[in-house]
Amino acid sequence: GDYRTLGAVMNAEEEEFGEADNVLVELIASGTGEDNGNATLNHSCSQDAVFDWIRLADKTRCAQIKTVEFSDGSQVQFAEVCIADGGVGGGVWTGSVCLAEWLLENSHLIADKSVLEVGAGVGISGLIASRFASSVVISDYSQALTDNLRHTIQLNKDLPVSRISVDILNWNDFVNPECELSVDPVDVILGAEVVYMEHSVLPLLHTIGRCLKPDGVAMLVLGAHREGLEFFLSMIPTVGLECQEDMHFQELVRRVVGTSTLPTLTMDRAGTHFRKFSLSRKCSIGVA
Fold it and tell me: Where are the beta strands (DSSP E) in the chain?
C-alpha cells in the first residue's frame, strides 16, 4: 500500500494519541495509506517500530517468534500475528512484560490460585502466572488471537501447560447480567494495557466484577496516558469494586525497560510510564 502518512505520523507530539492510535491501526491494516488528517502517533515510536507495524499488517508473512528473558533468567517465547487478523493484540506490549516481571517478584500473591488473564494478546503475563498458579485461563476476544495463544503455549514446553487453557472472552457479553459466564469465577484477574478507549471501560469493569470471586483481586497494569484511564478509575465504584494503586511500580518499569534482554516490542507506542492497580471487593486488598 501507499504509506505516505507515516512520515507525518512519526513527527506527532507526544500527547497526541488515543483515538489516533486506532486510526493508524486501521490505516495500516487496510493498506490504503490514505491521509485523513487524523493519523498521529507518539513521537517516541521509532522508524523500525513503524515498519514493524507494516510487516504485521502483511498477511502473507509468517508469524515472527520472539523471546523475552526475565530477571530470574527464565524465558517466554511468543508468536505475533498480523494486525489485519489480530488487531493490536497481535504483538506484545511493554506493559505486559512489566506485569509479568512483577508477578515473578510477587509470586506468593498468585501461588496455588486460579487466574484469568483478560485482553491477553500474546499471553505473556498468563504464561508467567502458570508457573505458580493452580490454573490459568488466557483469554482474548477473537479466534485469531486465541489460536495464536495456543500456538504460543506450545512454544513454551518448559511451562506447566496442563494448567493453562485458552478461551474467547468478549467483554461486551458481561454487560448483560443475564449473560451466562463462559469461565468460572477466579481468585486473580490479570490485565495489561487493557484500558485505551472509554467505550471499553464499562465492559471491562463488568467482566472483572462478574469473573472475580468475592475475595478475589484484579491486578492491572495500564498506560498512564491512555485515553479512558481517568474514566476507568472514576467508574470502578459503580461495579462494587475498590481500587488501590502501587505507587512504586514505576521503579520496576524502569528496570524492565532498561534491560538488554527486552526485545524490540512492536506495540511499544505509548511510552514507558505505567500505573499498576489492584481492584477488589474487600476494603483491604492486601497489595498496593
Answer: 65-69, 75-79, 114-117, 135-140, 164-168, 186-192, 212-223, 242-246, 274-280
Q: What does the alpha-carbon distance between residue 216 and residue 204 come to, in Å, rounded to a whole number?
A: 16
Query: CA–CA separation, 58 vs 3, rounded Å?
Result: 13
d(CA 53, CA 254): 25
Give me the amino acid identity at 205: L
Neighbours of 183 (CB within 10 A): 16
Among 24, 57, 68, 6, smallest CA distance to 262 is for 68
What gap in Å lies between CA 145 and CA 121, rounded to an integer?
A: 7
In tens, the pLDDT along 2-15 reads 333 333 333 332 33
d(CA 135, CA 67): 23
Rg (CA), the chain: 18
Phi, psi of 106 (to 5 degrees): -135, 40
Model confidence over 179-193: pLDDT tens digits?
Answer: 888 889 999 999 999
DSSP 92: -
Q: How far apart are CA 64 and CA 123, in angstroms?
A: 15
Single-letter amino acid, residue 6:
L
Angle at alpha carbon of residue 145, lines to 144 and 148, rounded to 5°: 90
Which of 266, 265, 275, 276 is CA-nearest to residue 225? 275
Q: Are strands 75-79 and 65-69 parallel, antiparallel or unpaired?
A: antiparallel
- Which pTM value belongs to this model? 0.78
CA distance 75 to 231: 35
The alpha helices in 75-193, defined as continuous H runs, are 83-86, 94-105, 124-129, 143-155
